Every structure is written in C-alpha cells, then in structure tokens.
Amino acid sequence: MKKNGKGWGLLLGLLVWTGETLPAQNITGVDQSALAGERVECRVPGHKVDRGGWIVNPVPHEMTFGEGTLDFSKGFRLDDRRGCFADAADFLPRSKRGAKVTVDFGPRVAAACGAKERPGAYVLRIDGRGVVVTGYDERGAFYGLQTLRQLLESPAARLGTLPFVTVSDWPDMPYRGVVEGFYGTPWSQEVRLSLIDFYGRFKMNRYVYGPKDDPYHRHPSWREPYPAKEAENIRLLVDACRRNRVDFVWAVHPGADIRWNETDYKALYDKFDHMYELGVRAFAIFFDDLFGDEDGRDPRKQAELLNRLTAEFVKTKGDVAPLVVCPTDYNKSWANPTPEGNLAIYGRELDPSVDIFWTGDRVLGDLTASTTEWVSSRIARPAYFWWNFPVTDYQRSVLLMGPAYGLDTSLTDGDVRGIACNPMEHGEASKVALYGVADYTWNTAAYNPLDNWERGLKELMPGAAEAFRTFAIHSCDADRGYRREESWETPSARLDAWSEEDARKLWEEFDRVERAPAAIEAGCGNPALLKELRPWLAEFTKLGTRGKRALALARLYRNGWTDDDFRSAYVRNLMTPAERQAFEEHRSGTTLLHPVYEELMAAMSDGLHEPSLRNMRAVGSFANVQGRTAWLDAGAMFDNDTTTYYSSRISQKAGDWLGVDLGRVEPVREITILQGRHSQGDCDFFDRATVECSPDGERWTPLTGELTNRYRIHWTGDPVEARYVRLKRGESPRNNHLTVRVFEVNGSLPDFVIGTEGIRTAASAFDGRLSTTCLVQGALRLRVPAEVAGWTVMNRPNGAAPARFGQYDAAGNLLSEVVLDDPCRRIARTEGVAEVRIEGETELFEIIPHPAE
Q1: Is 289 a catalytic residue?
Q2: 1-40+487-606 fold
C-alpha cells in the first residue's frame, strides 16, 4: 500500500484500530535508540480493595460487621444528648417514626462503651435498636457522625438499610490538615469555605492560613490590622472551622523586615490580639524562605520572640493553642547540622510547647523515619511535617491529581506531630491528595495509597468517575522537582520493535483521553472543580487526538508509506506554536502520553527527509539525552530560539559532556554554543570547558583550549571532518545543572538564502527538523544553484490566503508560481530560474532541495 486517495482524508479512516497486523519493515534513517519505550510499572504502594460497598474515609481502625440490617427508609430521629450537633447531623432525614440516633460524648460515657481514651476517638454502633455515636470528646462524637454520614452515602446503602456494625476509631496523629502556604494566587473565599467543609467531613482538624501573597500575612503589611472586609472574611473562615471542628491557625511571616525591638514586638502582639478578636485561637510564625541578610534569620532572636509570645500571649489568654513556627532551616538539604545551627538552637532554647515545621530532606520530599529522626534529635521534640504536595507553585502548568504516597506508615505520634499538606492554588482539585492525607494521618499503619486514590476519585466525581480517573492517572507528575508516578497502566510504543497489542492498547487509551473531558463536563457535579479543570481538559482532548493520529501514522510509516499524502497528514498532526504554547501552559501526560506523541513524530520526521539532509541529535553523559525522552529534553538546543534551553536537571560532575551527532561525517567549520538560561549571572553552565570533535565518538580532537566562564562560545577554523561535536566539562568545583540554549554547527542559514524580509527564525526552514518552524509573514528569497532540480516544501498553509512559491529569472521576471495550499508540495524547477521567492503568510517546516540527476 503506497498511495490511495488524498492524504488525511484516507488516514482518518485508519484511526480506528482494526486489529489487522501489518508486516514490520526495517526503517532506515531512523534513530532507533530514541524510539525505545517501556511498559510503565506502577510503584505507588497499595492495591485496590473490595469494601463491599461500604466506603468510609479515613479507613476506621476497627470496623466489625454483625448479622442483620437497620431499615432507615422512614428516616431518623435525633437524640442529641449535649445539644451540640444540630448542624453536624443535618444530613439525617428526620422523622418521628424513624430509627433513633443517639449522640453523646465525654470520658465517662466513652469508657462505658469502650472508646479509646484519646482526643477525637469515638464508637459508632448500629443494631436493631438504632444508632449510637459516643465520642471521647465533642470532636470524637462529630467524627462518629461523619462516619455515619459516609455509610449512608455508600453505594450499599441505596436499598435503604444500614448494616449492623461496630466502629471503634481514633486518630493516630494530633495534627491532620492543610497549610495554605503556596506562592501564587490565594484561594477565593468560596474555595476556602468548601475546603473547610471537606476537612470536617474527612476528620482533618487543622487549617493553617498562611498564603504567601496575602500582604497582611507578610511584608509589607504584617504589622497592620486587616481592613474591615478582609477581617470579616477571616471571621467567617473561623466560624466555618468551628462548625467543622477544625482549628483555624493564623500565620504571620515577619522575617523579611522585622526589627528586634519593642516597637515591632508590640506590633506583632497587637496583630495577634486583633486576630484573637476575630475568633482565632491558634497562631503560627513563619521564618521560611529568607535567603538574604535579613535580621529575621537569627534563630536565637526567633526563639526569644516565640518564648515571649508563649508567656505573654498564649498562656495569658488561656484558650490559645501552642504556637507553631516554620524555621529558616526547614529542610535537611540546607540546614546547618551543627550545635550552632537553627534547629539545635531551637532544641535548646525554644519553649517545649512550640511545634516546629519540617519539610524533610528537601523542600519537596517524602515523610520518612530517617528525616524525622534527624530533625527530632536536634529540635528535641517530634517535628510537624509540612508536606509540599500537591503544591505546584514551582511548576504551575500542571495539576497533580495522583495518589498521595511517600508517607512512611510505620511512624507514630512519637515520631511526628502530624501533617500540614501544602496544596495547589487549585483548591478543589487538591481534594484528591487531601483525601489521602486525611486517611494517612488518621489510620497510619493501614494507609493504602492506591486504594485511597481509587475511592477518592469516585467520592469527588461520582457522575464521571471513570473519565475523571483517566484524566487523573495522566496528570500526576510535574516532570521536575518532586517526581510522581504517572500513566502506570498504559504501555508505550516503539517503532523498531512494534507490538500490535501495545500499540492498540495505547491507541485505546488515547481514545479514552480524547473522550474524557466531554464526560467530565457532563458528569461533574462540582462547578468550582470543573472551572479549575477546564483549561487542562481542553488540552487533554487535543492530546488524545494527536496521540491517536501519531499512532495511526506510525503504523503506516512502518510499512513504507511515506508519500506526499502521508507527509501532508504528518504535517497536519504537528503542533502549531500556539498549540504548543497552550499545551505548555496546561500540561498533562508529561511522563508518557505526550512523550510518545513527540517521539513518534520526531522519529518519523527522520525518514521523511532526503538522504542528503543532516539528521542531528543530542548526545552526552546526562541521562536525559540518552533515554526515551531525549528528543524532548534536548530539542531546545536546536529550535533556533535563544529563549528556550536544554537542562540536565541533575548536578554536573567530573567527566560530563554535552554535544551533537550530525548523523554523518562532514566538514565542521563553525560552532556556536550558548550556555546558561541567560548570559549574565546564571550559574547553570560549565564554567571550565573545552570544545572537541570526533569522526566516530571515540577519538576526540580539541578545537579550543580550556574556556573559563564563557556563556557564549564561538569557534571557526579550517574544516575538520567530524560527525560528533561536544562541550566537555573541565576540572571545577561547580555542581550546578547544565543549561544550553543553542548548540549550532556550521551556521544556521545556507549560503543560498539571500533575503528574509518579515521572517522570524528563518534557519528553521533548513535545519532538517520538522519540529522547528519558520514563520513567513513577508518574503523568503533563495538563490537557485545549478545542481537543484526542484524542491519539496512542507508548510502549514494559511487557509484564508495561502503563501505563493514563485520562480523568477535573473531580471526579476516571474516564470511560474505555485500556491502553497497543501502541507506537502513537490515543485519542479522551471527552466531559466535564478531565484525563488516564498511570499505571503505561512508556517514553514522545511524546504528540501532535490539534487539534479
């Protein structure tokens, strides 16, 4: 099968995977190593559990089912012994003839029913006499009601009966909640109120209010009271927390400009008093993210301030919780480990009642026994873990919708005080992770991350659970920083060892991806969540479409179909600059789906060029120029755009190098390398380096001596026959990443280009890479050498007014003209032509000259 019909119209019919097995062919001219793909294995702990249709989160410590059921079809009648739970029990349909629900709390009644002697503990019993909820304290009884509520909402309760069951339950960790501590857009009042209800529903008990962009929380206005409107909003949040038995912890961040004097102490005391008047009964002070010479970094003065506030404010008021502090050294990677370090000074001098935040071994990291042991030995108390997940302020283009894992299930309250989870600025979407944090902090040893995630997705979007799962499983990883498992159920694809089964499964998954957003739009019952998801859902649909088309094209490509119709369809499936920008702003599928699309398209582009063209690719010692995403990571060096860059993403070390494989041995006469994200003050570059070349990748010849602190490297000289060119690191103490904006060999524009009026990145039309484009909005003029018999022009036509390809004689007379209204156009040379002009507006991928026979 070579050609039948017109391009994409025919190929659209092949997008449905028929199951027909086509014989594999040897593909020449393709970099096979870049096509390798492996089935992704899930490394998320846990497994799905059949809970018999009774879903409770957090999972109770003890839940024993008996024989029989309680009929609640006539509703319930509430016996609220303490008169505290009218609002908390509003989910119960009331009827004087309904089943009786008795709610009580207190150490005496709790002991009588066997409740654990622990704050927040409860026993829930359902039998033929009705429902009895007994709490060790008021919060315990509230939590018991939440368990009853979830049983009533469980799938198995749809028949109007509850099982006879005894639930004996209690929280493992004292602090279970959230810190609104991210950079970026703070949550709206509506989202905060929605989240507070969520905390109460799933037995979380702390909300630390510390949005980085609240000016009254930090510099410049931390000393000032909130204006009336903002103060009323705080009061409403405090009231909502009280209804949900959640502690509202107001945090202040004074370190950037604090002066250690009586004036500032009084300002801080007065601010606390102002918040107390608004109903706040728990406070935190943040000294994090101070990187200059601020006086606020002094740990002894920090401890002195906290001790004085503990004595003069906390203990004087009598109903205020112990203070919480976030130290300047809040993670191991930059903490001073010595007895004079921030943490050790806290351990010796800070009042023992003050809780201390800790993010772990790094800013973004897991909660482990080793990190809690390390910090506790210095601060002389269990740490309060500030978990920077699912926060995305370091990569705001993604949503982290995957399971909450990386939490050691052997820890107890003797090891850690609890977790303050730092979510995304997208509060509703953050509920997926918070559902897991609630489960872990309540029943730590039994925490099952994968099962929790499966339950959470159904809880948050019951009307479109499967579609939501499809979106979530491909929206887990930020592609940097705190790496997370993603797309673990989906096989990858490879052209050099094609598996029809894996390709079919991958196509089916792309099809589910394409259809999921519409199902979510139709079935999501939470408008606020849908509003947060919409920008990502729009790109998710496009990702599914592109992936299906790439697989269909790859299947044909393997069987030798590379004619002009195929090329036209191929170009139509390339992302436009606008599409790429939209995807980069709202990314999903970064671990597998998008790389599969990019890699298949890049690999096929190699075979769509004439054999004489250069097939340049990155090589080097860093993993991300060797593995399956090499093209994605390193392509920025070859895109003719100095604002984009390759990053090693790991520290440089002795022997590291980065270079290009030209695809063939050719005379190398000019090399240009731009290191760093910018050419002034950047630290991510080889500060000592040598440029070398090689014909075979084994014998290397230096072209320069050792270069010191050179962001821009430009070498010219007598031509040297080489296939490989590299920049090799010299001896240096530097351990930063390596970034490179440009790695160019033998110039960017061929010598037959004579004019580029109104053109940006003209070199992209001649670089042998269909992944780069030249935007023509004027005229591109080319001299026509005698050895050229014609051209293949690959472009994205402007449908309204396609560009024109004109051939002119030496006097400037037009000899022939072709309208570039097809993505792939073969054009024969007109006799007497001296110059070619491409005029109009188009996105030009490549101009491929045909040599004369």
Answers
A1: yes
A2: Methane Monooxygenase Hydroxylase; Chain G, domain 1 (1.20.58)
